[in-house]
Design a protein that fits this description.
Layout lengths: L5 H6 L30 H21 L7 H10 L4 H35 L11 H15 L5 H22 L10 H23 L3 H8 L15 H12 L1 H9 L1 H6 L4 H22 L6 H13 L3 H25 L8 H23 L1
Helix pairs in contact: 2-4, 2-14, 3-4, 4-9, 4-10, 4-12, 4-13, 4-14, 5-6, 5-7, 5-12, 6-12, 7-8, 9-12, 13-14, 13-15, 14-15
Amino acid sequence: MSLFSNHARARLKPNASLPVSNWQGSASHTLGSKYRRAAIPPWLINTASLIIMGLLVLLSLSIGVADFSWSGILQSIISHSANSDSSLLLVSRIPRTVAIILTGIAMAVAGMIIQVVLKNRFVEPSMVGATQSAALGLLVVSLLFPASALIVKMSVATIAAVFGMMLFMLLIHRIPPTDFLMVPLIGIVFGGIIEAVTTFIAYQTESLQMLSVWQFGDFSGVLAGRYELLWLTGALCVLAYIIADKLTIVGLGDSIALNLGISKRQVTWIGVGMVAMMSAVVVVTVGMIPFIGLVVPNIVSRLMGDKLRRSLPAVALLGASAVLLCDIIGRSIRYPFEVPVATVFGVVGTVLFLWLLLRAPAEQ
């Protein structure tokens, strides 16, 4: 069912008097213009992403310190009895791979949402204080109520992430909408301040080791029973796809949202809440993983254009594949030791982020 009525569609005509949002980072969106068309057909990108992700999943299931063979899995299936290979697959390898996929999808979709809400292509959850605030809230509740349930810790981390994002939005309120590069720079400084406060509290309370678990995304401790909370992010991603059209309208500008009867405040709050909850769940489960929400949406936007409903599946698939690839690299580069995924993706993400910043002025 279409989001717009015929009367609303009639309003989408060229009108130079209405302001135009430029969250896409270019002047390609005018009111009467079409969405930037996909450079490659969406079905081809999604099919290729599925194939690549399938190959990475098989590779991820095969790599590890413990001895594992697919022939043992086949023997277990034929004999209808469990052995060491099947137990390892069910207890460790499959939960870890599923956790990686869910984390990649969640952070990539969260990055796309926050870019739409803030109308800026150069931000992501770790640049608006969401993940840092979630870690601060998680540390505080762990110190004050160490025996609290996991759902309580996640709730406190989510509330802290919402407050952190609200404070960041107040800081950038006076920045001109055309000054794209100042927003991520302020976000980096803002996140650094929150992280410094968190580290100071952890140092004073001798909790640095506990804090390091949340600050560096790592999947080495993921086992069956320790990752199921990430399924909540999958449900939030489905919700993001359902309201994708409304998010797109909000990203096009306040006047357009008002003309089409969309409540900008309501959609913005829903988007902020979803990003905060995704960030909190990921931090609680596996720790911070930066730059996924920045790099993946920008790559997909350049390939598929700016229509959110069309690009969200590709964003999810590419996010999952990117985290899978970085985890495989982290497990292989110093085998049998592991390099955290956050470290590997941090290096790659920093290079790509600088490339995006340097390329942005030329596109304007």
